[in-house]
Amino acid sequence: MISPRLRKRALFSPQLRKHPPPVKTTQDVALPCCRSPTIRARLSHQGTTPMIKRIVIAAAVSACFAAPAFADVTIGGSAEMDLFYRTNQSDGRAADGTLQDAGGRFLEEIAIVVNVSGNDKLDSGATLEWKLAQKVATDYRYDSWGQREAWIGYKGDFGSVRFGNQFSNFYLMQDWPYGWKGQGNLWADAGAHYVQYSRGISYFSPDFNGFNFAAQYDLGTGDGDAQAYEVTANYSVGGLSINGGISHGDGYSAGSEAVNFGRNGAWGVGGNYNVADEQPEATAYMIGARYVFGDFNITGAYRHHEWKNVTWGGWGVAPASVAGGKSENDQFLIRGGYNFGKHALNLGYQLWTEMEVDGNDIDDSDVQQVSFEWDYSLSKNSVAFLQVRYNMMGDNAGVVFPGAYQIDGWNGIDDNNMRILVGTWTGF
Asked: Where is the region Disordered (predicted)?
């Protein structure tokens, strides 16, 4: 499953760490006296005489002295195609509630992300910045402008602040550098954290000799006491990067699935919710590190989840539900990588430990995962990849993961399943 997150495949090799060169509009004549795109002279090779060219250029030069300057606007994004085969797939339930096994299935998924962003230098020296983002060619999330991102902010020596619909920085940290190379479904897309804040306020600090931090807060709807907040921090020196953070939400939780805070049917949309006397709460904190040395890299992370007033169950062969005041568990991740030429190999392992509810373990509710990815650079902007991941579920894993989609379409009957995927990614 392709995550809602921003894909970071462009960072897998030194070649792809660079942004692609800007695309030049065919036959645009940019005039140095003004940056406005409205006064560019667009000239074609055919059907335009030298006299007409001189007239168009002269008119554009004259317009420079009268036309206002416009803010910079950038269009970019990425396009990804995935074709994959998954074993032990779910076919839902029969009329009597019995789980149905669909065997193996071939599937495909296309993810095209379009980002439109802009900035304007203010007279005070600060910068006003904004962003709109959409994920097209998918029918289940981010398919409307602004659902993925829609925020406006200000940047200066003090750092930067943003207001509006934006990704959780805690989630983005789980997504990269930890939840990529096939490990995202358990690390980035599962847990007690949130993906997105539709009514978010964020602060990003300047860089202090390799250290920076960020804080986010979601206002809720204004007609209740629901709220969410988080703090994240990063430190880098040489080839070592250390990341950590904490995320907490009152009044809304989707259990083991990471979704946008207060989700109301659609991604990027907060709901109308009020905090009851025993409202659900969700807290996650993590620490991780990545070290790059030569052509090798190693990544490791630890995360702890806590929920309050959340009821578990409803899938697999597990009990129908397990209710309790406090639920918690731990999660561990490790991955090693090697780059050579146009190739990159990565092998990883994850453990989602048994859930504990009010001090009592739910036996065999753990999940283990082994993942492998081979990347091959097609150009400075594009990469092809082969990805394999194998999931091993305890007998009661269905208590913690009530949706088949959370573990690669797992049928809830077998104790394992596998996904084999080939795909391509390109940035623009």
From this structure: 1-27
Architecture (CATH level 2) of domain 76-427: Beta Barrel (2.40)
Intra-chain end-to-end CA distance of the chain, in Å: 22
Tokens of 92: 């839902």
pTM across the whole model: 0.81
Query: What per-residue string of b and e applies to 91-117 under the rule 16 or more CB within 10 Å gives b?
Result: eeeeeeeebeeeeeeeeebebbbbbbb
HEC readout, the chain: CCCCCCCCHHHCCCHHHCCCCCCCCCCEECCCCCCCHHHCEECCCCCCCHHHHHHHHHHHHHHHCCCCCCCEEEEEEEEEEEEEEEEEEEEEECCCCCEEEEEEEEEEEEEEEEEEEEEEECCCCCEEEEEEEEEECCCCCCCCCCCCEEEEEEEECCEEEEEEEEECHHHHHHHHHHCCCCCHHHHCCECCCCCEEEEEEEEECCCECCEEEEEEEECCCCCCCCEEEEEEEEEEECCEEEEEEEEEEECCCCCCECCCCCEECEEEEECCCCCCCCCCEEEEEEEEEEEEECCEEEEEEEEEEEEECCCECCCCCCCCCECCCEEEEEEEEEEEEEEECCEEEEEEEEEECCCEECCEECCCCCEEEEEEEEEEECCCCEEEEEEEEEEEECCCHHHHCCCHHHHCCECCCCCEEEEEEEEEEEEC
Structure tokens at 341: 């030429």
pLDDT tens per residue, range 253-273: 777 888 777 655 555 556 555
